[in-house]
Amino acid sequence: MKDPVATPRIHDVARLAGVSPATVSRVLSNPSIVSERTRAAVEKAVEETGYTINLTARNLRQQQVGAVLALVPNLANPFFSEILAGISETLRAEGLSLLVLDTRQTDPGAAGRGLQAYLNRSRADGVIVLDGSLDRSLFEHAACPPVVQACEWIDGLHGPRVLADNQTGARLAVEHLLALGHRRILHLTGPASNSLSVSRAAGVAEALEAAGLPPAPRIEGAFSLGSGHTASAGVLSLPERPTAVFCDNDEMAIGLMAGLRAAKIRTPEDISIVGFDNIEMSAYVSVPLTTVRQKRAHLGRRAAEMLLAHRETPSPDTEIILPVELVIRDSTTALRKD
Amino acid sequence: MKDPVATPRIHDVARLAGVSPATVSRVLSNPSIVSERTRAAVEKAVEETGYTINLTARNLRQQQVGAVLALVPNLANPFFSEILAGISETLRAEGLSLLVLDTRQTDPGAAGRGLQAYLNRSRADGVIVLDGSLDRSLFEHAACPPVVQACEWIDGLHGPRVLADNQTGARLAVEHLLALGHRRILHLTGPASNSLSVSRAAGVAEALEAAGLPPAPRIEGAFSLGSGHTASAGVLSLPERPTAVFCDNDEMAIGLMAGLRAAKIRTPEDISIVGFDNIEMSAYVSVPLTTVRQKRAHLGRRAAEMLLAHRETPSPDTEIILPVELVIRDSTTALRKD
DNA sequence: AGAGATAATGAAACCGATTTCATCGACAAT
DNA sequence: ATTGTCGATGAAATCGGTTTCATTATCTCT
C-alpha cells in the first residue's frame, strides 16, 4: 500500500506530459533547447501535478550544494548580523541558501573539530569568514570550499577579501580630535591580535606621526559594551588623564561613556569620545556619538559577490577596500583651554 | 586524464580496507554491527585516505536535507539574532545546519513567491518561524516541512509554538508603574496586527482592570529606535500628558527617551519608562532602563528542540510559555505628588 | 536527389552514498 | 548428525534528478 499523496517526481510529470524525464529536466533548467509545443505541455503537467524539484538529487548530480556558509564570531552581535543581511540578499538573488555558524559557540578546544566538519565541499559551495581569530589551517586543506574573508581577516590566509578602510577611518577620527585641539588621546582597542585593531592602530599612529606626536597609549577591550564600561576605570586611573578617547567600535564607546558618566565625568565636556561602525544606536544615546561609518550591508553584498565570482574563476588575492566616512555628532568637542 | 587529487569516495576507502562500500557505510553510521577487526581496518583506511562523507548523497538516500530554516523578519535586529544563536547551538549539537532567510528582503509582492521556493521539503527538514506577519497559507501545503513558531506567531497556523509569557510581562510592567503611583499610563505598541503587541496589550489591560482603571491610550510604533523617537512627539502632544509609558520593546523605549530628552523632558523625573526584552544596551544607556527580561537564546534552543521532537512524532499544537521577569533599573520612579 | 548540418527527443549512465536481501560460517539445540 | 539461529558481510537496488550519447526528423545546400 503506497502513500496516496506522495509528492510527485519528475517521472510523474513526464508521464503526464507524454515525454521523457530528460525532457522535463530540460524544460526546468534550460527551456530554450526544447520545442515550443513540448515546453507548454510540460509546464502544464508541472502545474497540474504541483511538482517541485528535489534539490538534493539535483545537487548530487551537479556536484554542488546550493549553499554558502557564513562564519560569524558572534551571531548575537548586530554588527555582524547586518553584514549577514547583505550576504543573504545577494545569495538569495542567485537561488543560493545561506548557512550560518557561530564560531564562538563551542568551547575553544572543540571549536576547531566542530568547524572542520562544516568546512567541507559537501556542506557548502563556499565560505565567507567574518572571524579573523580563526586559525588559517582550518581552511588550508583540499576538502575546504573556496573562502572569502570579509571585515576581519586571517593572517597569511590567501584568497579574496572585502574590508572597510579601517586605517583611513581611524586616521580621520584621530585627525578630527587633533583638529579640536586634543593631544592626550587614548586608543581603546579590540583584542590585540584582532586584525581590525591592528589596522586601526596604524591609522591612529599615522595621524599622530603626521602631527609630530608620540604614539597613543592603549587600553585593550573586547568590542563589547561591558569591556568599554570596564575600561573607564583604566582611563581614570591613568597618571595623565586623556582628553579624548578613540574606541575601536561603538559598543565600547557607549560602554565607556556609561562608565565615565557613573564617575561624574562628562562627555564631551571632560572627555571627547569617538567610536567606529556607526551602529544605529549611536545616534540615540544621550550624547549622540561621533563615529566612523562603514556600510555593513554593502560589505556583505560585496563579499557574496566576490565569492560567486571566485567560484567561477578562482581569482588571486584580490582585496576590496570599501570607503568609510566620519560622522560628527555630539560626543566630541574642542579642547577646553585652561 | 583524471584529476590526480580527486577527493576519495567510499569506494576507495572500501578497496583500501579490503571490504565492501556497504561495510564502510556501516562503520560510519552504525559501528556496533560491524566486527571489531573490520571496524579497525576501515577506520584506518578512512584516516589514510582522508575520506569525508558526501552529505548530499547521504541526504538523497535518507530522504532528508540535514538543515533547518529560520525565517527572520529582520536579520539586522539583535533581538532576533540572539534567538538565532540559541537555535544554532541546538541544531549544531545534532549535526544539522542552520539556514537563515530574511523575510523582509524582497518587496512585499515578491516576498511570498520567493519564500515559497524555500518552504519545501527539499530545502529544509523543518522551519522555525520568527515572523508573525507572514501569511499562514505559505505554510499550509503538502510540500512545506514541519513548522515551529517561535517568539511571534501566526494567527490560525497550527503546530508547536514557543513563546515568552508576553501577557504576564506586560502585566508586571504595568503593575510596577501602578505601584509607583502612576495612573496616566500610555502603551507604545508594535504594529497593531503583531501578535506580540496583541498579547502585551492584554497584559496591560489586565493590570489596569484589576486596579479599576480604564484602558490605556496607545501609540503605534514599529519596534524600532526611530519609531520610538518619533513617538515622543505624539506623547507630548497628548491633552493629558502621561506620567509613564510602557513600550513593547527596549529599542522603542530608548528611542522615546532620546526624543523626550531632546524636548527637555527628563526620565524618570518627568516620565517613567518601561521597556520589554532587556537587550544588552538597556543597562548602558544614560538612564538604565527598567524592562522585562526574556531569555532569547533559551527561547531559540527550545524552539529547535521542539522542532526536532516534532519531526519524530508530529505533536499536536503544543505551546511552551517561557517565564519572564521584571528588571527594575532607573527609568521608573514614584509619581511625584504635586 | 543526396549529403550534411541541425534540432528535438529518449534511453541509459551517472552522481555517491544507504539499505535491503541473500549468503556464508559458526555455534547451539535437538 | 541435523536443523535452526545469529552475526558479519557483500551484491545490487535505490534515492531523484541531470547529462551524455544515439537516434530520428527536418532542413539546407549543391
UniProtKB/TrEMBL annotation, chains A, B:
It comes from the Bacteria. Pfam families: LacI, Peripla_BP_3. The keyword DNA-binding applies. Residues 8-62 form the HTH lacI-type domain. The keyword Transcription applies. GO terms for molecular function: DNA-binding transcription factor activity; transcription cis-regulatory region binding. Keywords: DNA-binding, Transcription, Transcription regulation. Gene3D superfamilies: 3.40.50.2300, lambda repressor-like DNA-binding domains. SMART domains: HTH_LACI. This is Transcriptional regulator, LacI family.
